[in-house]
Amino acid sequence: KLRGVVALDGPSGTGKSTVSRKLASALGAIYLDTGAMYRAVTLAVLRAQVEPSDVAEVVRVVRAAELTMGTDPERPSVLLDGQDVGQEIRGPEVTGAVSAVSAVAEVRDQLVALQRELIGQALSEPGGIVVEGRDIGTVVVPDAGLKVYLTASSSARAQRRTAQDVSEGRTGDLDRTHADVQRRDALDSGRKVAPLRKADDALELDTTELDVAGVLEQLHKHVESRG
Ligand code: C5P
């Protein structure tokens, strides 16, 4: 078991990013947002005016894309070909296309290799690393010392995503966001490669009725008793 690695998986809107960052800060760990990586390469595909369904072209564009991940939990960043794309990757165009791009096996192979490289570097750091995504406990680091799978009802998740959109200056549309949450759940859980699912040995936490502090309290308990 890799004691220095905490893997947090689950669908969108479970509060995963917020609690991952806060947990990393508290542990003095670095933070890796793998969703931001899939979003950034999706932006590269859209900028190249390639259809997300055109697998050969998607693979070509993603191979040529250069990603640089900033892993400070207080101010995580993602650079695509040297340019900060942190805002743009949260917009509706990327959100609409990311599940298609992330279903491509070659895209996943490339990003998983980069994730493992970053995780390997973090293992020599005293605080370790908190990694969030969909397949971290199942595929990327099955040896993680603590694996957590966050869930919540789809309406609770849509409400959180909408509140987050509004607070970050985007348009909030609850019905549209709810439909999008359900659409991405179906795509992410139904895909052939690395589908979203709980690892057998992951701790499952339903956050429907928990606030951020409540989730963090649970996580800290389990961090202390991790392998
Ligand atoms: O976490 P976030 O909502 O930013 O992730 C965006 C999308 O990236 C997900 O809907 C999923 O399609 C993809 N993803 C993935 N594997 C990961 C992280 C994200 O397929 N480890």
TrEMBL record:
UniProt keyword Kinase present: yes
Entry's Gene Ontology molecular function annotations: kinase activity
InterPro entries: Cytidylate_kin, Cytidylate_kinase_dom, P-loop_NTPase
Location of the Cytidylate kinase domain: 6-224
CDD domains, alphabetized: CMPK (cd02020)
Reaction(s) the record says it catalyses: dCMP + ATP = dCDP + ADP; CMP + ATP = CDP + ADP
Any single Pfam family the record assigns to this protein: Cytidylate_kin
Disordered as annotated region, ranges: 157-187
Keywords associated with the record: ATP-binding, Cytoplasm, Kinase, Nucleotide-binding, Transferase
Biased amino acid composition, Basic and acidic residues: 167-187
Residues at which ATP binds: G10, P11, S12, G13, T14, G15, K16, S17, T18
Domain of life of the native organism: Bacteria
EC number: 2.7.4.25
Predominant subcellular localization, coarse grouping: cytoplasm
Top EC group: transferase
Localization per Swiss-Prot or TrEMBL: Cytoplasm
NCBIfam families: cmk (TIGR00017)
PANTHER family (UniProt xref): CYTIDYLATE KINASE (PTHR21299:SF2), CYTIDYLATE KINASE/PANTOATE-BETA-ALANINE LIGASE (PTHR21299)
HAMAP family per UniProt: Cytidyl_kinase_type1 (MF_00238)
Family, similarity comment: Belongs to the cytidylate kinase family. Type 1 subfamily.
Protein name (Swiss-Prot/TrEMBL): Cytidylate kinase
Organism: Saccharopolyspora oryzae
